[in-house]
């Protein structure tokens, strides 16, 4: 169950990081409310997952999912530059997440 919570926490991190773009510096009410709620939910789920997973693994997976997802959505939704190198580094992030999972002992 900890891994499910951790993946959901990582997906929420993707959501709130992309949501920050829509807050316009936290000057827009509803995007700001949803972004702050996403931050809180993501952190709470990370904390729950870290109760039974090593913190280095939990945090690394959380950050990896968030960074890879935000970078991919930034390119797909926000018009950020797409290059072979950027896509390759996103793949490396995902490989690292899988590696942390595979070597966690859980």
TrEMBL record:
Bilayer topology term: Multi-pass membrane protein
Keywords on record: Cell membrane, Membrane, Transmembrane, Transmembrane helix, Transport
CC annotations in GO: plasma membrane
Residue ranges of the TM segments: 29-47, 59-77, 83-100
NADP found in the keyword field: no
Cross-referenced InterPro entries: EmrE-like (IPR037185), Small_drug/metabolite_transptr (IPR000390), Small_multidrug_res (IPR045324)
Record localization: Cell membrane
A Pfam family assignment: Multi_Drug_Res
Main location: membrane
A GO molecular-function descriptor: transmembrane transporter activity
Family: Belongs to the drug/metabolite transporter (DMT) superfamily. Small multidrug resistance (SMR) (TC 2.A.7.1) family.
Protein name in UniProt: Multidrug efflux SMR transporter
Organism: Streptomyces morookaense (Streptoverticillium morookaense)
Lineage: Bacteria, Bacillati, Actinomycetota, Actinomycetes, Kitasatosporales
